[in-house]
Amino acid sequence: MDNVTVTLDRPMDIIDGRTAAPLRFIVEVNGGQIISWDNVTKTVVFRTTQGKLVTMQAGNPVVTIG
Question: Is the full-model pTM beyond 0.85?
């Protein structure tokens, strides 16, 4: 991020041997915006600074950018 150090609003976790970072913080610190979160399907949609919508689902390796 242009050699700027930022402090996470909460610590990262290690879950089942994988690092889990707080996505909201990462999106917002980079100028993006969380649009929605579906707790049933564990799906998040966020908008990038370029206006693209990104859809991600927990446990799914496919990310849709459009």
Answer: no
